[in-house]
Amino acid sequence: MIKIQVNGRNHELSQDLASTPLLWVLRDKLKLKGTKFGCGKGLCGACTVHFNGNPTRACQLPLSAASGGQVRTIEGLSENGDHPLQKAWIEEDVPQCGYCQPGQLMSAAALLASGAPVDDASIRAAMSGNICRCGTYGRIVRAIKRAADEGGRA
Amino acid sequence: MLVAAAADEWQVPVAEITVSQGVVRDESAGRQATFGELAEVAARQPVPAEDSLTLKSPQDFVYIGKRRLPRKDLGKTDGSALFTQDIQLPGMLIAVVAHPPLFGARAARVDDADARKVAGVVDVIQIESGVAVLANDTWSAKRGRDALKIDWDESDAFRGSSPEIMASFRELTQTPGLPARNDGDAAAALAAGGNVIEADFEFPYLAHATMEPMNCVVRVGDGECEIWNGDQSQTQDQGNVAKELGMKPEQVKIHTLFAGGSFGRRANPHSDYVMEAVRIAKSRPGTPVKLVWLREDDTRAGYYRPAYAHKIRATLDDNGMPVAWEHRIAGQSILKGTAFESGMVKDGIDATSVEGATNLPYRIPNLRVELHTVEQGPPVLWWRSVGSTHTAFSTEVFIDRLARAAGKDPVAYRLQLLEGHPRHQGVLKLAAEKAAWGSALPAGHSRGVAVHESFNTYVAHVVEVSLTDDGGFRVERVVCAVDCGIAVNPDVIEAQMEGGIGFGLSPALMSEITLEQGRVVQSNFHDYQVLRIGQMPEIEVHIVPSAEAPTGVGEPGTPVIAPALANALEAATGQAFSRLPLKLG
After folding, report:
1. Residues from chain A contacting residue B497 (CB–CB below 8 Å)
2. Per the CB < 8 Å rule, is B260 touching A33?
3. pLDDT for position B432
4. B554: which of B78, B197, B352, B460 lies 20 to 30 Å off by Cα?
């Protein structure tokens, strides 16, 4: 069995899934569908989760490589959808179609959690792997700054 | 009619009925009804004459024009919003399809032995558009698909290459096409000689590249069919599916979900991916099937914004004002062969091929627009802002060149030629004023402007660009002015202008689909590149106050950005850009 912890819950999964990317384990096996499929090649960031605290493209991580690790998905970002970033996202009216936003939020949350200074350069660096086709980038920058200003690092 | 219906129902005079917040009331008797409750009775009321109506005065608007309205949580920040990709039904199978490597090729021989050995694979079936592998989960379906061995019959396939396709389009623009607009006698005015200015423009095929690749869930039952799709065009899909299944449209039920982007892609008159899902699902009656396209399937599936070549020629009078303008366009038709053909293709002219060129607002006495419609090529489709995606570029870059040839300021030149078009003038003036047009800029920075109407909405952008040390450039700032009539929801208008600019910057800077002997070269976001966060400029949106009827804002921000950017770069470098994406040097 392959053991992983997702959003604080322990799961034991079949060895048959060893080569299956974490993305499809999360979506098809654990029914956590907030983590999105966009490209399958680690190019768009829609499937970003935190793996042992680091922002990680779930489509590029075979389950075997995630064995024993801790995964956090958008469903586990906060108890009630009230993480400072989620609140800032609504305040700044960020989402349009919304499909890329779970990945955007997970990349942004990793930036805030890292303790690095939050400025235009660090936001650009942290978020450059996340594509949004609706053009919400300007609002994403504003929302990250707002969350940081309001103590979102915690 | 709702009020009249209520007055009829309750037998009270019309004057005693009030309407507020979607509820019709008779205060005196304490009765009330919602619009929905009255709709059926209201539909039987006579339609009042238009001139007998008094619309609500703008100062009485409750929601219209207000900012920061309370909004519903749509589940778009916690992962709970449901897209087609997220639909999970009992007993559902996932289908991943091996599509032909060339448009028009078909599977001739299929060896599915290895595919069927993949754990989780349930079935392999051949359909018109390829070979589908059905499995219990997505990854197994993908592995099964990758294990197929297929010989493709490529005898009827399209084998064109982008350079040749474009060369043939360019050649067509050397010869007269079908007339789409004809004022005065442009040919005679051009033949009279004088200072003839001309330019050629090329536009590649473009993919929509929505974040959610195309997908669709279908269950075909006995005399009924259910579809789950982020559908942008339900009536067409319902009709096409009903025909395929030999059903009546009302036997096809569509559950409309959030779409992870569409930009026109999920509104295909041919219902391509929906029909593919139906053809797979009908082989397993009663079983829900989710068709999943991987990014590569999506990028290579066609239904692109068509490629086009343009040629524009003009002559100027002694004051530098245009006397004649001849604009030739060559490319594929989006609407030929669709249900829209009868309404929107007239005398051989597909309105979507020439829109934005035929309604050129500039005062030019001899103005002719011609079209060559090309029959062969990959499947094509509308793409956010449709014809204006290319016509706004060629016309607005060319008018800037005329201004330069005339030695005039691009804003002043346009304003002079836009007499009698106050809404074009209005957005142009507002954008120029807010961007401090004409004021000094830091070294290496320059500005460009463009104005264009599409979907009855008027947009002007002033772009500020800087040349970078590595020989490239950076889009620093965009000042946008928009006139969409009454601004119903200013927050949404701003968001759509920002998004439209971002969407239009991708083809301006980097996106391009190319064909090599019929094969699509690009496959995923590494080679079909799109705008990323570091390339997004600062954007400032100004809305023209207006009492005109409200018009759309989803598309009109897109087509204006590339020409404004090209104009800024031409002003800075002197380089005459003739194709997108824009490359310096």
Report:
1. none
2. no
3. 98
4. B78
Q: How many domains does chain A have?
A: 2
What secondary structure letter does DSSP report for A54?
Answer: E
B275 or B30: which carries more pLDDT confidence?
Answer: B275
Q: Please tell me if residue A128 touches chain B, with a CB cutoff of 8 Å.
A: yes
Write down the number of H helices and E strands in chain B: 16, 25
CATH number at residue A7: 3.10.20.30
**Residue contact A100–B209, C-beta within 8 A:** no
pLDDT above 90 for B584: yes
Q: Report the gap between the CA of A137 and the closest CA in chain B (Å).
A: 5
If one counts every other C-beta atom within 10 angstroms of the C-beta of residue B297, the result is 22
Within 8 A of B524 by CB-CB distance, chain A residues are 39-41, 43
Among A76, A106, A126, identify where a domain stops. A76
Percent of chain A with pLDDT over 70: 98
CATH of the domain at A118: 1.10.150.120
CB pair distance less than 8 Å for A139 and B498:
yes
Q: How many CB pairs lie under 8 A apart between chains A and B?
A: 157
Say if residue A103 is in the same domain as residue A130: yes
Instruction: Say whether pLDDT at B80 is over 50.
Output: yes
Which amino acid, B55?
Answer: L
Same domain for A71 and A90? Answer: no
Give the domain extent around A36.
2-76
Q: What is the C-alpha to C-alpha distance for residues A60 and A138, in angstroms, rounded to an integer?
A: 28
Does any domain span residue A114? yes
Q: Which residue of A has its CA nearest to B526?
A: A43
pLDDT (tens digit per residue) in A65-97 = 999 999 999 999 999 999 999 999 999 999 999
Residue of B nearest to A86 (CA): B77
Local structure of residue B408 (DSSP, 8 states): -
pTM of the model: 0.95
Give domain status of residue A154, yes or no.
Answer: no
In three-state secondary structure terms, B332 is: strand
Residues A10 and A72 reside in one and the same domain: yes
CB nearest A131 (choices: B294, B532, B539): B532
Same domain, A66 and A130: no
